[in-house]
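User: Show me sequence and structure for the first protein, then do the same for the second.

Assistant: Starting with the first protein.
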Amino acid sequence: MEVAMLNEEEYVRAYELYGQGIRAKEGTRQERFQPLLDFYFGLTGEKETEPNAVMHHRIAQYGPPCENCGKPYRTPQAAFCAACGHKRAEKL
């Protein structure tokens, strides 16, 4: 399953909208975070219903694609791929 990820510029705006939803005093949870969900949909065309999930869709949070299976390393510093167990040839 492919997940649309946010670059740093997009993430900064998503973070602002997430903070506004956290600080909002009125409205349902859905109403407070709707601007964030709308922003993500506008960028990606993917309908997300969980604001916390959007905050995990940040490219910089993950490492490069595994040389063996193509899935991203869990972190930029990961020494092996959690999906297939491949040992990373070069850590950055």
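Switching to the second protein now.
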Amino acid sequence: MMAARGLTLIEVLVALLLFALVATAATQTLVAAQQMRATSARWQRATGLAEERLERLRGGDRSEDGAPIGQFTRTWRAAAVAGAPRLERLDVHVDWDDRGPQRLTLTALLRRSR
């Protein structure tokens, strides 16, 4: 008997189906990884903005943050700490939208000189 050569149509279709499934899974993984990278970059940017504003507050700059910074809005609040007359609590909030509203809050205590 002579051995058959080549692939049958069914074998080719099964191979194409397997390739399509693997390609779809790989594409979904790459898209999810890209979305996570972008989300991580936004959180990193928000953290940098909050740290920068907190340092300015510690340096005595009590001006208001007016306009949004790109897609980020930054606000701050200072309040005396109850029971500790020389301590002040500084809260810096950074808000943005990333598939829903997001907020990062950075808090520090500052000893007042008076």
